[in-house]
Each structure stands twice: as C-alpha cells, then as structure tokens.
C-alpha cells in the first residue's frame, strides 16, 4: 500500500512538473534590494537632515551641560582641598544635581530621537513599497521578491529602477 502511494505521488509530480515549468515561463519575477533602497533613496537623506535640524538644539543643550559638569568636576578637583566643607558640599550637590539632570535629559533625548527615527523610517518604507509596486505594475511583473533571496540574475533586478522612481518623487 505504501509503495502504491509513493508511486502515485511520483507520477503526479512527474506529470505536473512540465505544467509548472510552462507556467513559470509566463510569470515575470523581479527582485529589489530593500536595504539599498532604504539607504540610497533621496528621501532617506532628507529624513536624516530633517531629524538633525529638529534635534540639533537639544543636542547643543546636552553638550553645554556636559561642559558645565566638566568645569565643576575640574573646579572640585583643583580647589576642593582648599575649600571650606560647606563650599565643597555645595559644589558636590550642584555637580550631582547636574549629573542627574544630564542623565534624565539624555534618556529623554534618546527616546524622542528613536521615536522620530521610527516615524521617518515608517514613512520611507511606505514610500519605497509604493515605488516598488508602481515599477512592478509599469513593467508588467507578476511577482517581486525582496529579503531572503539567495541569488537573483541582473535581468530580474529592479532596485535601480525603483531608486530612479524614488528620485523622481523626491524632486
């Protein structure tokens, strides 16, 4: 009985392979490298520049606070021995307060920056996906693959065409 089922399965596969091969000739398949698109799209550079502008003031504030802390640490190291206990204690409290403030501000900065980066990445991913679909429709592709492809021939590579489409949209 098992031999019968195996022979039947083999016969079915043997009969279907030519049909699948013929159907595969009619299917137009393409490939895009999503990583390249997300890195090289002009919209990616625009998003990066937008984030830098948006967060540059806060980054400058953090840099100034770090310099203040370094100044206080330097003062404490240089003059701490000669200061009165109350002056040294006041300077240490101010230094500790500024350190806590710096840690809090850095944490908030990282959280806000990561949130905005994720928002911009989501917009870019949607734009890239839309451009891939447009190129696929315009060129008559039935299937476009992306990540997880081990090999693709140059004739099915659509990355440059999609990148061109993104550049047109970026203008």
Essential attributes:
4% strand; 80% helix; mainly alpha; 2 strands
Verbal overview:
The protein has 171 residues and is mostly helical. Helix content is 80%, strand content 4%. It contains 5 helices and 2 strands; from the N terminus they run H-E-H-H-H-E-H. A two-stranded parallel sheet has the order 1-2. Helix 2 runs parallel beside helix 5, helix 3 packs antiparallel against helix 4 and helix 4 packs across helix 5. The chain is rod-shaped, with a radius of gyration of 30 Å.
Biggest sheet: strands, sense, closure?
2 strands, parallel
| Series of secondary-structure elements, N-terminal to C-terminal | HEHHHEH
Strand content: under 5%
Could you give the count of β-strands?
2
Radius of gyration: 30 Å
Strand order of the largest sheet: 1-2
The total of helices stands at 5
Average pLDDT score? 83
What is the overall silhouette? Answer: rod-shaped
How much helix, percentage-wise, in residues? over 70%
Quick structural summary:
By secondary structure, the chain is mainly alpha-helical.
Topology, pairings included?
Elements: H1 2-26, E1 29-31, H2 34-40, H3 42-79, H4 85-139, E2 143-145, H5 159-170
Parallel strand pairs: 1-2
Helix pairs in contact: 2-5, 3-4, 4-5
């Amino acid at each position: 009985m098992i031999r019968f089922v195996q022979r039947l399965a083999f016969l079915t596969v043997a009969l279907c392979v030519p049909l699948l091969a013929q159907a595969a000739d009619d299917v137009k398949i393409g490939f895009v490298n999503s990583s390249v698109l997300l890195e090289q799209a002009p919209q990616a550079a625009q998003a990066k520049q937008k984030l830098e502008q948006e967060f540059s003031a806060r980054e400058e504030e953090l840099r100034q606070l770090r310099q203040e802390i370094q100044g206080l640490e330097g003062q404490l190291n240089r003059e701490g021995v000669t200061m009165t206990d109350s002056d040294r204690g006041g300077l240490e409290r101010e230094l500790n307060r500024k350190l806590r403030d710096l840690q809090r501000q850095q944490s908030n900065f990282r959280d806000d920056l990561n949130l905005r980066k994720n928002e911009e990445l989501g917009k870019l991913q949607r734009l890239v996906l839309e451009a891939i679909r447009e190129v696929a429709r315009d060129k008559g592709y039935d299937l476009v693959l992306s990540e997880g492809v081990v090999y693709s021939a140059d004739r099915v590579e659509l990355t440059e065409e999609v990148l061109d489409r993104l550049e047109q949209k970026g203008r």
